[in-house]
Amino acid sequence: YGKNTIKFLRLHKEGKKHFVKEVEVCAHLRLTSPQEYLEGNNSLVIPTDTIKNIVLVLAKKNGIPSLEQFAIDICNHFMTTFCQVAYVKTYVQEVPWQRLHEDGVPHIHSFICVPDGIRFCEAEQCRNGPLIVFAGIKDLKLMKTTQSGFEGFYKNEHTTLPERHDRILCGELFCKWSYGECKDFDFNCIWKKIRECILEAFAGPPDCGEYSPSYQKTVNSIQMHILSRVSQVQVIEVVLNNTFYNVVDMKNLGLTNDKEVLVPVEAPYGSCACTLGRK
């Protein structure tokens, strides 16, 4: 049991310069006894309102140096404070506020919300067990307008999809990875590096790109690039929900449409997923 969607903004000031972290937290506990379920005995139950207040107090006292460290702080607090807690799991996701720049100069107290992917993390721990930390990015929308195709696929009497050697590749990406044994990592630096790896693998070199023969191969290329560049990552899951675009037929309008006007296919949409880990 626990408390979901604990939303708050943590404001930190260094002189005139302000820093913000707006997050949403879910904190769940499992107690050593199920007596509240079986007998209606609530003597061991930590109220969910108390859970919410603890999260807010930890944000006030410790700040949020990184999402991962904040999730770790929450796990550590419940494990060290309450002997009746057998397991704790914490999920934290961040609202993507970025500092506003004016003529290249960073503003000291103004920010803009940029929808370029949502950062999240999870931390979980059993009593007398290891602390396990996951991190990730979701709702990251990516597109490239060429260097993508889909050919040579299996065909039977139900196949109507034509082969394409040049198409738009577009999708919404979910990526989640585990760190294995949690050490003194710079979680912020690692997260930024992984995000850069995702963009590099998806797009290819900026002057020419890189051909993708399928959504599946793109998913695997992203995973392999991350595992080769970021040694702290042990297992990585990538899900790519596809958005397809159809070329509008403009013959009746007396126009030739050479893939210049397209409409998205809202539903159904495809989805490719893979989990890859080190040996």
Protein topology:
Elements: E1 2-14, E2 17-31, H1 35-38, H2 48-62, H3 67-81, E3 85-94, E4 97-102, E5 105-113, E6 118-126, E7 131-144, E8 169-178, H4 187-203, H5 215-229, E9 235-242, E10 244-247, E11 262-265, E12 271-277
Antiparallel strand pairs: 1-2, 2-3, 3-6, 4-5, 6-7, 7-8, 8-9, 9-12, 10-11
Helix pairs in contact: 4-5
CATH H-level homologous superfamily name of the largest domain: Urate Oxidase
Percentage of residues assigned to helices: 10-25%
What is the number of helical segments per DSSP (H or I, 4+ residues)? 5
Mean pLDDT: 95
Overall number of domains: 2
Q: What is the overall shape? A: globular
Predict the CATH topology of the largest domain: Urate Oxidase
Distance between the termini: 35 Å
Strand elements, count: 12
Main β-sheet description: 8 strands, antiparallel
- Estimated radius of gyration: 23 Å
- Assembly type: single chain
H/E element sequence:
EEHHHEEEEEEHHEEEE
CATH architecture descriptor name of the largest domain: Roll
Widest sheet, order of strands: 1-2-3-6-7-8-9-12
Q: Which structural class matches the secondary elements?
A: alpha+beta
Proportion of residues in extended strands: 35-45%
State the gist of this model.
By secondary structure, the chain is an alpha+beta fold.
Descriptive report:
InterPro entries: Uricase. One of its GO terms (biological process) is purine nucleobase catabolic process. Keywords: Oxidoreductase, Peroxisome, Purine metabolism. The chain folds into two domains: 2-129, Urate Oxidase, CATH 3.10.270; 141-277, Urate Oxidase, CATH 3.10.270.10. It is built from five helices and twelve strands. It has helices at 35-38, 48-62, 67-81, 187-203, 215-229, and strands at 2-14, 17-31, 85-94, 97-102, 105-113, 118-126, 131-144, 169-178, 235-242, 244-247, 262-265, 271-277. Helix 4 (187-203) runs antiparallel to helix 5 (215-229).
